[in-house]
Amino acid sequence: MDNKKPKYNLWQNSWYMLQAAWTTGNKIVIALCLVSALLFVINNLLGLFIAPQIIAAIEAGAPLAYLLRVILLFSGGLLLVQVATTYVKVNQQSAGRIDVRTKIIGRISDKAGTTSYPNTETQEMRKLLEMAQKSCSSSYSATEDMWNTFSDIIKNLLGFAIFIVLLSSFTPWVLALVLGTTVTGFFFTRYINDWGYRHRSEEARLWQSATYLNKKARDTTLAKDIRLFGMHAWLTDMLNATMSLYQNFYTRGARVYIWADVVDLALSFVRSGVAYIYLVGLLINTDLSASQFLLYFMAISGFTAWVNGILGSFAKLYRESLEINKIREFLEYPEPFQFLDGQGLTPDNSKPYTLALRGLSFRHHGAQADTLKNINLTINAGEKLAIVGLNGAGKTTLVKMLCGLYNPTQGEVLLNGQDIRRYNRQDYYKLFSVVFQEFSVLPTSVKENISQSLFDTDGEKLKAAAQKAGIAKKIEALPGGYDTPVGKAIDANGIDLSGGEMQRLMLARALYKDAPIIVLDEPTAAMDPIAESEIYNQYHELTGGRTSVYISHRLASTRFCDRIIYVENGQILEVGTHEALIKQGGRYAELYEIQSHYYNETGG
Fold this sequence. Notes:
This protein is of the alpha/beta class. 61% of the residues lie in helices and 9% in strands. Strands 6-7-8-3-9-10 form a six-stranded mixed sheet, with helices on both faces. The protein has a four-stranded antiparallel sheet with strand order 2-1-4-5, with helices on one face.
């Protein structure tokens, strides 16, 4: 259960949506809420007065022509109001409301795509993202349907005020009873409807699990494993179990929410019963006419409807406010890095860049121990540094610290002697051309995957990068050349690349970026020995004299680097050239001997 109090209340979230419409150029949406409400109230008032006016005319002995005029006047008014209502709803409201919702979706996407890297690894941030996206998922979600609620509140308040005037001759205690039951019902219903918010974490966890399983079941990269290992039934059972829990969650909610309906029905019965008894008493004890009786009878019915409408609209607005609250919590999730408020940086390949780690330790969020421990390292401008060690030693985490994807738990990362936390982190990222073990490939063209841009791709630079990465011939042999889509997720004519070819594509992307510092994290892990040897031989050409960091668990693959550091258990144990480390006879030499023996025995 999540007992966390909402950060913003109903009024603050309502104001947020009004500001969203105003700042996105959809001011008309606000005005149309009022226009729609006014039209609805006018329509109800015309419907309320038409029958009593006709009966009053008949009671007064009015001629048939007069009766027809009254009927035509009211009918014409109703027709005009309904036409105007339809026009406002179809031609004006929908487009503006959709635009507001899509702009908020854009804000969510921007936050998700630019938030500080550590935020992407926290469970809280992931849950908030799930809930924020769900709150914008359709026209029935809070970001769009809230405008209907605003309109409902306005029309119910207007109707309530008008009917209070109509029923002002009633004994005050009757109206006081109606208002008292309304207030009671409102707060009770509000508490009941808050159940969903109090259990949002549980709902988000179930939704996230179901979404993940459904995505994996359809993931083409897992298709072979699913079939060869017979995983389909297992995945189906897991998905069904999760969906069953999800259904049980909503069933529990429905059992709670039904009490709001029961209480509302009971209070409505009390309100209506008392009012009708009072009206019958007036009919018996006064000279109330038939037309007046009908008017008051319909007014009482309408009054209780307005009261219930206010109750229901505010309860609905409160639920929607909770959804908006989650969107705002996601958008305002704190950033550990500086972005626009940080000092600017402009990459310049002609300038020297020196990186240094001073007393650096790092522990992942929620971890029990440090991943990196008291690291002290300087990477000189133009130096080719290799980071080696066994899997899990902390090599990739160390590189992520250099790239600014994490802030150290202790110590600092320095760029030319300055702590990188002072800089605009997005500018700092521009200093690095990186190939990580895990990389992102979009189902778009080869050209766009390399250039990471839809427009202004430099054709010569693109081909040069592909050539250096050793994938130009493969691309040029494709039917669509550089315009061939990667993968078949969207286009059936897309090309599926092998693991080694994919790594070359990512290398081409890094080279196209042409940043001052190059980082290659196991860039040849999926390549065959010949292709790997080609990359080693081209390394000086690929780096072009720039500062570079090369990561590998294969100790023999880093002999071309100026300096090697050996990492184990999050610490730098040894530093030196390949020859010096072999001569030192430490852990590097020991593991090098083991790996060399393995390769010799297997013919590698």
